[in-house]
Write a structure and sequence with these properties.
Blueprint: H1 4-15, H2 18-27, E1 29-35, E2 40-48, E3 51-52, H3 54-63, H4 77-90, E4 96-100, H5 105-114, E5 129-133, H6 139-149, E6 153-156, E7 161-164, E8 169-172
Parallel strand pairs: 1-4, 6-8
Antiparallel strand pairs: 1-2, 2-3, 4-5, 5-7, 6-7
Helix pairs in contact: 1-2, 1-4, 1-6, 4-6
């Protein structure tokens, strides 16, 4: 089982403090993501030497685009940090699967019309949320890890987890 300590160690590395933070600054942060709708994958350092790497952010933003309308949004880089913390803590053997990243307002309205549980003012529209699955890890374990970070919102759904960089809160359906 994942410990709160391992999740917090990832957070310390991101926010600074001590040897883990210095190691993270030197080595960088690489994410392994796969968009399940486009089957595109990306494994790229998005942060190194104390700063975000713009070309990598653009590539990740493209991966998390609204695949319905092919629209890209500049995602909040803190979302990538949160994904990196989860990846560091959970140590998946495969890429984290992205079910939904950025959503245009139009796509969000269509999803709201077609199903329950879609927020009208979703953080997806603002480029501050992502719905994920971590292969080999139960959604409740992923959600617990995200909640342990206490950084943003965490929603537990049947087969996936919503994370965002809005206010700290959690819910389940």
């Amino acid at each position: 089982m994942l410990s709160r300590r391992s999740v917090l160690a990832g957070l310390v590395a991101v926010l600074g403090g001590g040897a883990p933070a210095e190691a993270a600054r030197t080595v960088g942060r690489t994410l392994r993501l796969r968009n399940i709708h486009t089957n595109e994958s990306l494994e790229l350092a998005y942060w190194a030497r104390g700063r975000y790497l713009d070309k990598a952010l653009v590539a990740y933003d493209h991966l998390l685009r609204d695949h319905h309308l092919h629209r890209v949004c500049r995602m909040d880089p803190r979302l990538y940090d949160l994904l990196w913390i989860l990846q560091t803590a959970l140590k998946p053997t495969q890429s984290i699967e992205v079910l939904s990243g950025y959503r245009s307002a139009m796509t969000n309205r269509l999803l709201d019309y077609a199903s329950d549980g879609v927020a009208q003012n979703s953080y997806h529209i603002q480029g501050k949320a992502v719905d994920i699955r971590v292969p080999g890890t139960r959604p409740d374990v992923v959600a617990a890890a995200a909640e342990a970070v206490t950084f943003g919102g965490v929603g537990r759904y049947g087969t996936f987890v919503h994370i965002d960089v809005g206010p700290v809160r959690h819910w389940s359906t």
